[in-house]
Specification:
- The structure holds 3 protein chains of 3 kinds.
- By secondary structure, chain A is an alpha/beta fold.
- Chain A has 3 domains: 231 residues, Rossmann fold (3-Layer(aba) Sandwich), CATH 3.40.50.300; 189 residues, P-loop containing nucleotide triphosphate hydrolases (Rossmann fold, 3-Layer(aba) Sandwich), CATH 3.40.50.300; 48 residues, no CATH class.
- Chain A is built from 17 helices and 24 strands.
- A 6-stranded mixed β-sheet of chain A has the order 6-9-10-3-11-12, sandwiched between helices. In chain A, strands 18-21-22-15-23-24 form a 6-stranded mixed β-sheet, with helices on both faces.
- In chain A, a hairpin with a 2-residue loop joins β19 and β20.
- The two termini of chain A are 48 Å apart.
- Chain B has a domain of 206 residues.
- Helices cover 70% and strands 1% of the residues of chain B.
- The mean pLDDT of chain B is 85.
- The termini of chain B are far apart.
- Chain B is globular and about 60 Å long.
- Chain B is mostly helical.
- In chain B, strands 1-2 form a two-stranded antiparallel sheet.
- By secondary structure, chain C is mainly alpha-helical.
- Chain C has 15 helices and no strands.
- In chain C, α6 runs antiparallel to α11.
- The chains are: A alpha/beta, B mainly alpha, C mainly alpha.
- Chains B and C meet through α5, α11, α13 and α14 of B and α6, α7, α12, α14 and α15 of C.
């Protein structure tokens, strides 16, 4: 790919004259931080976007892909970060979708089944063809995606952040698969922002920053520090963020909490722990092991089947959401666009959420807009939120600023407990740093923080203690004072205690 | 008195009443399964009915049938255009079609048949074949009506299409996860157009049946909410052809029962009795309330490709 | 972890939008959009009339003459405005909570039933008290009628459109039953299917000699103001809009989506009931079998044209009042059916549904014309 430029609406250049050269039979990493343009570039290659300018050559021949079917026809296939699988279809149906074998006029499932089983054997990808995708594990879903690619005889395979949803054990399984694929003559492009992965598996790496190519190097010839500098433009120390604190008294007691997910299955299984003043408690686990449901249970958004959630002697289980807030629990939700902000409301209206009952904002039965606006300006300034004016819609803020708005709003509640679910998701280095610093500061103020994150490095650097969640149950506890052992944690994350 | 109500006749009338509702319901299923809400089924039915009468008065019932289908097809495409290409709110679009369908015939009737208002003159109906000599079926159904037969056959046909063909698999994927379908190269917008056009055509057929088979003329608002009952049947039948079939039989039976009971002299005021089908629909909707409704996950949301 | 799906949803905005200026600009923009829509609808109307052999200019001028050309005409126009304002407010209010209340027709009907019954059944009350009781009764009837679909939607997520249309049909049948032969509200002395006339103390005073014009318009205008204050200045209105705009976010901060969904439907249908009550108390003075001229559906166009803002709803109600009352004269003089109005309504609704994509498209156009693309993202300057 040469000179690829892609601009999205409203003056955002995602790719600026990007060059990418990938040799056949190699594993090539595309490295860059959030928003660097990696996904965009690959989406262009896959035919989901059309570049404004630039050329693509495959085996020396120029090609263009106005749609994914063209890319697929040329042997290019992609596994997206958010799986493109249909939950209510079976594995088989998902694999054949778009390239279904037909015994006129009906679907020929039998032929498909045979072919897929053969591929599955050959590459060691174990799947259950008749299971519904919504019922299988995330790792198996990924295998389904890979089988999708193989079924279409892909030769160039693109993986977009594939390890985000895997345990360390599953990650090494994936590496094995990728090597097998490589040995069969496939070319693999691997998008990531994690240095470790680059060093572990790739042959070559191309670094993107702010939409431009920085360099392409052989992995053997470089070091993580060098890569970081190229990726970010400055040295960033991934050192310990938060000093170990003296444990205060418990402020939240969670005892034997069990909760179901939206499909009626047990998502939180007999979870018990306490959260102490002035500590950051991390919850580690692969996505989909009950963290979301646990957070919802602890913030009153999901009812618990049994168990107790108590703070300062007040029992909160089975109470409405309002009471959780009244009891001093604040929540920074994982999906800020869905649960955090109201995109169509302006900044004042967004900040008011949860605060609307306060007497200072109400003037004789009506809302006191002047008071609200003044307060809003003050808060936004405190948190250094970059905005045009208070009447702008919150949906127009950048991701980092949106997150700050949510955090600012929640902190204003003066909570004793803050439950932060994936607070740095989708943020770039600057905003992430700010978020982490804020959390540490809150900790020093004596707040109790529950930090749920999918990034184990982040958890290890920020938390005083880590609890590992697997299939809704706590597998074990680790303390920073003892030193964190990533392998041990990863083992538990993968359910290592079982069988 | 009971035997006056529950006899062989009620089977036939159930089917006759259920047919337009079922057609609308099947149309709704096709559209929603592909991801497009079609609240405008009622209006499409009405316009189909009107077009059918025009056609029949011009060139006989078969022309009327053609006109009715075409009207449904065109209205479906209009709804498709607004929902898929313009990506506007699908409920609003459907509602506009419904309002249009009530007003347009009112304007055109005096133009086409001067001197007539609100009701068209009687036109030729679709022919039926006498069945009285055929054993068993002949005593149940005195006449063989082609549209009714077609509708009954459509149920297993659409079921097969949806679940056993490539077309059906792709269609269902559009309603569940259009982006996933897009990434494997399925043309989302085009496919949805086909589905909505089909949906409109089925509604048009329903209307045609009403105006030139069940009856022999068009009157304003003659669909009387059947399009919406069809949607309720779709929901009740969990977006499956056979489910819709049973739901429509149920609704058809309710109305047939009401008519039979009334003529048998059951002492309930007629107006209230007429409300019975609607009450039943409501009850049906409430009864299946819950989480696992089986609705297509992406129905109603316009697909915005990158 | 890269999560561009979250970031893609928002466009980067760099222009500064000053507070008051942007508000005025926004108002002007919306008015312009609505005006364009109306003009386009009329053009389409012209086109249809032309095709079907009528003279559009003659037809529409007859309409305007009928609506505004005489004392009676103006009075009728203003009279038509009243139920339109109220039902338009009702629809707008529900839509602020993302509820599509096309059941206003039925809610108007039950309001009418309640108002007429209260109107002729209670004797010996001073006028003001009697009218108030009737109107309150009408509101309550409408509220009850809207409670069920609201509850079904809030609790069981049953789409309100279907339940509300079923209730419409049921309401019509109930109303018909009430005044049918043998029905509980039938006037035994009258051959027509109608209820007895309401007592004088229940009638809304007519204040313009020679016309049917009564005080109802002031009630409607007052309600418009009340709804405006409720939506934009009051706490429950704010919470309701939050639920409508993003129920998940509202729920996260403890606002009960269930309660406010139900509240929205109840308030909305109460307004519908009020419209029905006023029709009876002000104009018909008794319940007839088929009295409602379809205000419920016009309400949708009125509300959408008015961009859901109560004040603008009053303005678009005026336009619709003209259309409705003028349509009668138009039909009489030129033979064009009154249902031209429903065609116009449908067209207007079509166009308003396209408003948002159209606006997006315009924005694309503008930014393409305006700008140099800017490099980088604002995130990196923060902190």
């Amino acid at each position: 790919m040469r000179g690829i430029t892609k601009t999205f609406s409203q003056q955002t250049i995602a790719n600026d004259s990007v060059d990418l050269e990938v040799g056949s039979g190699e594993i090539h990493c595309l490295l860059g931080e959030n928003g660097a343009g990696k996904s965009t570039l690959m989406n262009i290659l896959y035919g989901l976007y059309t570049p404004d300018s630039g050329t693509i050559h495959i085996d020396g021949k120029p090609v263009s892909f106005p749609s994914p079917s063209h890319a697929i026809a040329h042997g290019i296939s992609m596994v997206h970060q958010h799986f493109m699988l249909i939950p209510v279809f079976t594995v088989l149906e998902n694999i054949i979708l778009g390239k279904e074998p037909v015994k006129q006029p009906l679907l020929d499932r039998r032929t498909a089944k045979k072919e897929i089983e053969e591929l599955s054997q050959r590459f060691g990808l174990d799947v259950d063809l008749s299971a519904l995708v919504q019922d299988i594990s995330v790792a198996m879903q990924q295998r389904v995606e890979i089988l999708k690619m193989l079924y279409r005889k892909a030769r160039i395979m693109i993986f977009d952040e594939p390890t985000a949803v895997l345990t360390p054990q599953e990650v090494s399984d994936l590496y094995e698969t990728m090597n097998t694929l490589k040995e069969s003559g496939n070319t693999i492009i691997f998008i990531t922002h994690k240095l470790k992965e680059v060093m572990d598996i790739s042959d070559k790496v191309t670094i993107l920053r702010h939409g431009k190519t920085v360099a392409t190097v052989n992995t053997k010839d470089t070091t993580p520090t060098e890569l970081t500098r190229m990726m970010v433009g400055r040295d960033v120390l991934f050192s310990d963020q938060s000093p170990v604190s003296v444990e205060g008294p418990p402020v939240l007691d969670v005892a034997h909490v069990t909760a179901k997910d939206s499909l009626g299955r047990t998502a939180v299984n007999n979870v018990s722990f306490s959260l102490h003043e002035g500590e950051i408690l991390g919850i580690a686990g692969v996505d989909g092991n009950g963290q979301n449901e646990l957070v919802e249970a602890l913030t009153g958004l999901r009812s618990v089947e049994e168990g107790s959630i108590a703070t300062h002697g007040v029992e909160l289980a089975h109470r409405p959401t309002k009471e959780f807030f009244a009891a001093g629990i604040a929540h920074v939700p994982a999906d800020r666009l869905k649960r955090g902000i109201i995109s169509d409301f302006n900044l004042c209206e967004n900040l008011l959420l949860g605060h609307q009952y306060q007497r200072r904002f109400n003037k004789r039965c009506l809302l006191d807009n002047a008071a609200i606006t003044a307060w809003a300006k003050e808060i936004l300034g405190q948190f250094n939120v970059r905005y045009a004016c208070t009447t702008m819609k919150a949906g127009n803020l950048s991701g980092g600023n949106q997150q700050k708005l949510v955090v600012a709003r929640e902190i204003q509640r003066n909570p004793t407990i803050l439950i932060a679910a994936q607070p740095t998701r989708g943020l770039d280095i600057g905003a992430t740093q700010f978020m982490r610093t804020s959390l540490v500061e809150l900790k020093s103020q004596g707040k109790a923080i529950l930090l749920v994150s999918l990034d184990l490095q982040e958890l290890m650097s920020m938390s005083d203690r880590i609890l590992v969640l697997f299939e809704g149950a706590i597998q074990g506890e680790f303390r920073k004072i003892d030193g964190y052992d990533e392998t041990a944690i990863g083992f538990l994350m993968a359910g290592g205690n079982h069988d | 008195m009971l035997h006056k109500i529950f006899n062989i006749v009620i089977v036939a009338s159930t089917l006759r009443i259920a047919t337009p509702i079922l057609l609308a319901s099947l149309g709704g299923i096709m559209a929603e399964r592909s991801g497009v809400n079609n609240i405008g089924l009622e209006g499409m039915m009405l316009l189909g009915a009107f077009a059918a009468v025009i056609g029949s008065s011009l060139g006989g019932p078969w022309l009327g049938l053609l006109f009715g289908l075409l009207a449904g097809l065109c209205t479906g495409l209009l709804h498709g255009f607004i929902s898929i290409t313009i990506k506007a709110n699908q409920i609003i679009s459907g509602t506009a079609i419904n309002i249009l369908a009530v007003g347009l015939p009112n304007i055109l009737i005096p133009v086409i048949w001067p001197g007539h208002y609100a009701i068209t003159p009687v036109v030729k109906q679709l022919p039926t074949i006498a069945l009285s000599s055929v054993p068993i079926i002949g005593s149940l159904f005195k006449q063989f009506n082609i549209i009714i037969a077609l509708t009954v056959l459509l149920v297993p046909f659409l079921h097969t299409v949806l679940y056993y063909t490539r077309f059906g698999l792709r269609l269902r994927s559009l309603g569940e996860h259009p982006r996933a379908a897009d990434t494997v190269g399925i043309p989302v917008q085009r496919f949805r157009y086909v589905a909505v056009a089909l949906s409109g055509t089925l509604a048009g057929l329903a209307g045609t049946y009403l105006s030139i088979s069940y009856q022999a003329q068009f009157s304003i608002a003659m669909t009387a909410g059947r399009g919406f009952i069809g949607l309720a049947a779709m929901i009740f039948g969990r977006w499956k052809p056979f489910g819709a079939f049973f739901a429509c039989i149920l609704f058809g039976f309710a109305e047939a029962f009401q008519a039979a009971a009334q003529s048998a002299g059951v002492p309930i005021p007629p107006d209230l009795f007429l409300a019975f089908p609607y009450v039943l629909t409501l009850i049906a909707l409430v009864s299946i309330a819950g989480r696992h409704t089986g609705s297509p996950a992406a129905a109603g949301k316009p697909y915005i490709p990158e | 972890m890269t999560d561009r799906s979250l970031d893609k949803k928002r466009p980067t905005l760099d222009s500064h939008q000053g507070g008051r200026r942007s508000r005025l600009g926004a108002i002007m923009g919306s008015t312009a959009t609505s005006s364009v829509i109306v003009i386009l609808a009329f053009l389409l109307g012209f086109f249809i009339l032309g095709i079907t052999g009528f003279n559009p200019i003659q037809a529409f001028s007859a309409m305007f003459r009928g609506a505004l050309g005489s004392k009676r005409g103006i009075a009728e126009t203003l009279l038509s405005m009243t139920p339109l304002i109220l039902s338009g407010l009702g629809f707008a209010l529900a839509y602020h909570c993302k509820l599509f209340n096309i059941g206003l027709e039925g809610q108007i009907a039950v309001g009418a039933i309640a108002a007429s019954w209260l109107g002729y059944s209670i004797e010996g009350l001073p006028c003001v008290v009697h009218v108030t009781i009737c109107l309150v009764g009408a509101c309550l009837a409408g509220a009850v009628w809207g409670f069920f679909p609201g509850f079904l939607k809030a609790r069981y997520n049953i789409h309100e459109v279907i339940s509300v249309i079923m209730l419409n049909h049921i309401a019509f049948k109930v109303a018909a039953y009430m005044v049918s032969v043998g029905g509980p509200m039938k006037d035994p002395t009258d051959l027509m299917p109608a209820s007895p006339y309401i007592l004088t103390t229940a009638k809304l005073p007519r204040i313009w000699a020679g016309t049917r014009f009564n005080v109802s318009i002031f009630i409607a205008l007052a309600m418009a103001f009340v709804v405006w204050v409720f939506l934009y200045k009051s706490r429950p209105g704010y919470m309701m809009r939050a639920v409508g705009s993003n129920p998940d976010a509202a729920q996260t901060v403890g606002i009960s989506a269930t309660s406010f969904t139900i509240l929205a439907m109840v308030l909305s249908s109460a307004l519908g009931g009020l419209a029905g009550g006023i029709e009876i108390l002000g104009i018909h003075h008794r319940l007839l079998a088929q009295f409602s001229p379809g205000y419920g559906f016009d309400a949708i166009a009125v509300a959408l044209l008015g961009q859901l803002n109560p004040i603008a709803v009053v303005a678009s109600s005026f336009l619709y009042g003209v259309l409705r009352s003028g349509a009668v004269l138009m039909q009489v003089t030129t033979g064009v059916s009154k249902d031209m109005v429903s065609v116009l309504t449908a067209t207007i609704i079509f166009f308003t549904s396209m408003k948002e994509p159209f606006a997006r498209w315009m924005k694309h156009l503008f930014s393409a014309i305006k700008g140099h693309p800017m490099i980088g993202r604002s995130d990196s300057h923060v902190a």
